[in-house]
Design brief:
This protein is mainly β. The chain has no helices and eleven strands. The protein has strands at about 1-5, 10-15, 20-25, 35-40, 45-50, 55-60, 65-70, 75-80, 90-100, 110, 115-120. Strands 2, 4, 5, 6, 9, 10 and 11 form a seven-stranded mixed sheet that branches. It has a four-stranded antiparallel sheet with strand order 1-3-8-7, with no helix packed on it. A hairpin with a 5-residue loop joins strand 5 and strand 6 (about 55-60).
């Protein structure tokens, strides 16, 4: 079992930056693939980025060049640095984990945090 708690969301103006964090506890989360998804009410959860235990990451094209996913396995913490934020980045952002492989499919993640809201104003 892994418990995930996100933080770092907030309200920013367009062009601003935010760093989201996801603290993992429980099982050895350092061995898990970890990912960020985002969602607005009434729509499907959208993949943002994932990172393998060894630090290899991949990001969706919508945020590529504006975001960096990273992890600190010693602290069991996942990060998402987002720069040059746009109003269309306004979502609830969720941290997810699964212990087999990285995937862009949300249903294949076993563990989820409660989400942190990011709101970008123009």
């Amino acid at each position: 079992q892994v418990q995930l708690v996100e933080s770092g969301g907030g309200s920013v103006q367009a062009g601003g930056s935010l760093r989201l964090s996801c603290a993992a506890s429980g099982d050895t989360a350092s061995r898990y693939c970890m990912a960020w998804f985002r969602q607005v009410p009434g729509k499907q959860r959208e993949w943002v980025s994932y990172i393998w235990p060894d630090g290899r990451g991949l990001s969706a094209s919508s945020l590529k060049g504006r975001s960096t996913i990273s992890r600190d396995n010693a602290k069991n913490t996942l990060y998402l640095q987002m720069n040059a934020l746009k109003p269309e980045d306004t979502y609830m952002y969720y941290c997810a984990a699964q212990n087999l492989y990285c995937t862009v499919v949300s249903s294949q993640y076993n563990y989820w945090g409660q989400g942190t809201q990011v709101t970008v104003s123009s």
